Amino acid sequence: MSATDSLFTSFALKSLHTDNRIVMAPMTRGMSPDNKPSDASVEYYRRRAAGGVGLIITEGTCPNHIAASGYENVPYFHGEDRLAGWKKVVDAVHAEGGKIAPQLWHCGGMRKRGTLPEGDVDGYTPSGMNVPGKVARHIMTQQDIDDVVRSFAEGARDAQKLGFDAVEIHGAHGYCLISFFGRGRISGPITMAVQCKPEAVLSSKLLRRAGQKWALTSQSCCAGRNGSNKTSLRVSHPHLSCWKPFFSH
Ligand SMILES: Cc1cc2nc3c(=O)[nH]c(=O)nc-3n(C[C@H](O)[C@H](O)[C@H](O)COP(=O)(O)O)c2cc1C
Q1: Is 60 in the pocket of ligand 1 (CB under 6 A)?
Q2: So where are the chain's domains?
Q3: Which residues pair with 16 in a beta bridge?
Q4: Which of 44, 45, 124, 175 is catalytic?
Q5: pTM for this entry
């Protein structure tokens, strides 16, 4: 068997079974007016499954928190209408033999005040900073953290109800979760985030020491609601994307 042949063999990880090992990466589309997956979204995902993708991770979709979204026309993962839209997506992908997981996404400090439909709501970060030294975002409180964790958990619960095969939590690319993987001073009144040594790199060690309770709490809440074998956490290297400015010394 060649290296590429193995891509076309089935895959099973505990309760998740796919026909092959091709996984589609999450890709924001900005094509959901009223933040609802449209019939065009249904067709978009159906075509990917028909084309042979074993597991589709959807574009980032925002759980029910006031500051979760940072962009217009992205799909939300709460509200009857929007969830009904997602249900059509799930059914269409399953009809083609594919599997699908929503990527639950909180934009954190990448959100700019004014972004519709929430409008006058700041982005949320642990330090209030989105560039070094400049507090221009809302400084998250413990209550805010709890609210965001709750929103992820509710999203995971709804994903299961709708028939999704798994859930992915977006913990990468400078958004809310990774802004808690601090590598420097965190000025907000955050008790869950601890400082991480500068030499830390993305590894299980980093996850244990820095991503720690926040990411793990989110993940375990989702796992609790969605079946413990079906929750993934996407992370990226802290030096990539917009990570660094958040916690510059
Ligand atoms: C238009 C676009 C939208 C993306 N949206 C998301 C997203 O919603 N969630 C996410 O985790 N990554 C997102 N990404 C990152 C991709 O999942 C992927 O990691 C990136 O394109 C690099 O993959 P590649 O090296 O195969 O090109 C996006 C990338 C692009 C180009």
Answers
A1: yes
A2: 5-246
A3: 13
A4: 175
A5: 0.85
